[in-house]
Specification:
Helices cover 56% and strands 21% of the residues. The chain contains three helices and two strands. It has a two-stranded antiparallel sheet. A hairpin with a 2-residue loop joins strand 1 and strand 2.
Length: 109
Amino acid sequence: MSRNQIPTATSSSSVADILERVLDKGVVIAGDIRVKLVNIELLTIQIRLVICSIDKAKEIGMDWWNTAIEKSDQASVEEASQDAALLASRLETVELRLRDFEAALTSGD
């Protein structure tokens, strides 16, 4: 090998090969950040990052994208139900006030 030649590895992997391997096997990166002042913990941030294919995620029991959609749909239904109950309550209040107003008008005659 000459002095000007750059040494290379005997086996090379392309980015596609590495990405395929990572998605097939999966990678987990975990870390915690803690901020303390005089032994008093002020802030804790827990970071969990999982990189894998959807098939691998389902295989290991991760399917938050399905449950998140169901939860958001259910939350929308519950929110609509609460809004309807609030509107019904306000309508009832308005009707009672209207009856009181009408009664006051008729008794004043």
